[in-house]
Specification:
CATH topology of the largest domain: Growth Hormone, Chain: A
Structural class: mainly alpha
Radius of gyration: 20 Å
Shape: globular
Number of helices: 18
Number of domains: 2
CATH architecture of the largest domain: Up-down Bundle
Distance between the termini: 21 Å
CATH superfamily of the largest domain: MFS general substrate transporter like domains
Number of strands: 0
CATH class of the largest domain: Mainly Alpha
Largest sheet: none
């Protein structure tokens, strides 16, 4: 690709910073909820409602953000909706009022959904669907995810006030808004600016549908393994909470390393081929992970899953990048529909785990990983057919 302009480089740097923050406040939700439960005495049931409210906000905003960008303009909508994370995190620190806590979590979900949508859309457009830059941005999310637990530890254990993490994150988010103000988004173009086609004709594109299904299974596998990993090691392997938490950190560290490596090697093959290679790795290591092969091999499988999962998200976006740039509403529907994967699959695992056991529930992920591999083969054949 040709060299990026100065304005494009500024936008890219700003989006990397915003995605770093996105990693922090996405993962920090899981750390904030126990603090809220201890501070305000809310029940485990209500804690579940809070997390569900955040997820609902993410899914809803994935679709709504496309329409608000059309109505308000990309920059204005981006700034307004990104500011919701500040409102959300401040809201959950004010009191134990259940309505306020739920609204705060919904606002955090809104910010998560819209920021992911807009940032991916902007970087996809200014880099012309370049895999390298998309993977680098995803790596910044992973760095933020790794940093999130330490932010909460410094706030609650060292400083003695868990609210400091929310206030600090709100200030950092305000800096992101200032950066967005100086981004020349109209000049560089975006998926919601310029003479782009409207309507829903993108649903007739085979590549769009295949990519959508691939993202559905991948995002479901990713969220499920992240959400159930600690429970798996504690319940199935009988490890301590500290060891299981270390495995979660190891998974994110592997994802971070994988995303850096993917940004360096992804350009050597087409997006369809790269998705296939990564899907093979995910299926193989997932099969190893859910087999009763002993603790050492399951640790190795955890590392392998992190490395091979790392580049799939960004590469799927690149795989259908031209369609996402062409149609105004393609991004919104893509993230909304594929976002059902992280809602449905973890719930299925929970139902099976409740009726059978955790190991049987987590083995559902092997089926989802196999489905991802099959879809990657379909995508590869579609690429060859299109020539």
């Amino acid at each position: 690709m040709k060299k990026l302009s100065r304005d494009a480089k500024f936008i890219l740097g700003g989006e990397y910073y915003i995605f770093f923050l996105l990693g922090i406040y996405t993962l920090m939700v899981g750390s904030v909820v126990p603090q809220i439960r201890a501070e305000y005495g809310v029940s485990y049931e209500f804690s579940g409602y809070m997390i569900s409210a955040c997820t609902t906000g993410i899914i809803a905003m994935n679709l709504i953000s496309s329409y608000t960008a059309i109505l308000l303009g990309l920059k204005r909508a981006y700034i307004i909706q990104h500011a919701l994370v500040i409102i959300g995190y401040v809201a959950v620190t004010i009191s134990g009022n259940h309505t306020l806590l739920i609204l705060g979590m919904v606002f955090i979900g809104f910010a998560r959904g819209s920021t992911s949508n807009y940032s991916n859309q902007i970087v996809n457009d200014i880099t012309k669907s370049n895999i390298k830059y998309m993977n680098i941005m995803a790596a910044f999310f992973a760095v933020g995810a790794c940093v999130a637990p330490f932010v909460m530890i410094l706030s609650s254990d060292v400083a003695g006030n868990w609210r400091l993490a929310s206030y600090g994150l709100s200030i950092a988010a305000a800096v992101g808004i200032v950066l967005t103000l100086f981004m020349k988004l109209n000049r560089e173009g975006s998926g919601t600016e310029g003479e782009k086609r409207g309507g829903l004709a993108f649903f007739k594109r085979k590549k769009y549908l295949v990519s959508l299904i691939a993202m559905f299974f991948y995002s479901g596998v990713e969220i499920s393994i992240i959400g159930w990993l600690v429970t798996f090691f504690m319940e199935v392997q009988g490890t301590t909470t500290q060891f299981a938490s270390a495995m979660a950190t190891l998974l994110w560290a592997s994802i971070l390393v994988g995303r850096i490596v993917c940004s360096l090697i992804a350009s050597r093959m087409t997006a369809a081929k790269f998705i296939f290679v990564l899907s093979v790795g995910v299926a193989a290591f997932m099969a190893l992970f859910v087999c009763e092969v002993g603790l050492a091999l399951q640790i190795a499988a955890t590392i392998g899953l992190g490395l091979f999962m790392s580049g799939i998200y960004s590469t799927i976006l690149v795989n259908t990048g031209s369609i996402l740039s062409e149609f105004k509403l393609a991004f919104g529907y893509f993230f909304m529909l594929s976002g059902l994967g992280p809602v449905i699959l973890p719930a299925i695992i929970g139902v099976i785990a409740e009726r059978r056991d955790v190991l049987t529930g987590v083995r559902t992920l092997a089926i989802a990983a196999a489905a991802l591999l099959v879809i990657s083969i379909v995508n590869l054949r579609l690429e060859k057919a299109e020539g």
